[in-house]
Amino acid sequence: MPQPSIISASRRTDIPAFYMPWFLNRLRAGLVRYPNPISGKPITISLQPEDVHSIVFWSKHYGNFLKHFDDLAALGYPFMCHYTITGLPRQIEPYVPDWTQEVEIFRQLAAHTSPRHVQWRFDPLIFAAGLDAAYYLNRFREIAAALAGFTTRCYFSFATLYGKVERRLQQAAIPYTDPPLDEKRALISSLAAVAADQGITLYACCQDHLIEGRVLKAHCIDGDLLAELFPERAQLFSAQPSRAECGCVASRDIGIYETCPYGCIYCYANQSHALAVKNRTAHNPLDEEIVTSQKLPLANPTDIQYNSST
Q1: C-beta separation of 83 from 62 below 8 A
Q2: What's the pLDDT tens digit per position in 157-189?
Q3: Residue 94 in contact with residue 129, Cβ under 8 Å?
Q4: Model pTM score
Q5: 35, 41 contact by CB (below 8 A)
Q6: Burial of 135 (0-12, 13-18, 19+ CB in 10 A)
Q7: Distance CA 279, CA 54 (A)
Q8: pLDDT digits (tens, 9 = 90+) for 196-229
Q9: 3-state secondary structure of 263
Q10: Which of 114, 128, 158, 263 meets the CB 3.0–4.6 Å disulfide criterion with 273?
């Protein structure tokens, strides 16, 4: 009998913010389809309760998710959440809601579940105009204080400057840099101290050179954590890193690139904000896919962050 899958929803788009009615329809239907981002070949997987171990959500905004929380809970699928709150300026995250609003929603989400079910992501850190170590330390201190008691973990990474990210920064005339390792370590050491004061542990995502002292290796889809959260579920996990130094176990990511309209300048999942907005507009919550994959451009395998095997 096949092992139940962990469903990642999603590292390729923001399902909680923009596609919750669609996702609930997929759970009720018991199946979902998405294209392999490299080949375009459609993949169909079962979402029948017996075929799903748990769901790992990823989002920058859970306000819409909370509106559908009772419907999701009634379906009985175990889940946990990654919640990205960075508080970056509009030139970097032009359409993401203000971080103070997101903190309030984070607290509500943790109250509906538990602080261990909701993981804070201060991710990615990008050094651009006005965004230096002092900026990040100050903003991190503000957010960590606001989230104290509502989460126990914070995941971070420094931005990977893919070609499309560099092009966006250049087109926006935003100066940027990749600081040397000693500067990164100094900043992360300071963040870890702030986090510890608030009862939060810091985890480095896919950047093992930053693991030391109070900074642990991230397993963003974490078999051990899922086993602790959902001990009644089968505990059969296998490592399946999605890129270098990734600590994740195997999952199936049901998202589709080019469908998140937040327009973040560091985004690896979109080539074009205009295309993402167009696809969001064309979305039909009754379809098996978020957007009909035949209309989507194929991804460049050297310019995406996560592999296509999940």
Answers
A1: yes
A2: 999 998 999 999 999 999 999 999 999 999 999
A3: no
A4: 0.94
A5: yes
A6: middle
A7: 28
A8: 999 999 999 999 999 999 999 999 999 999 999 9
A9: coil
A10: 263
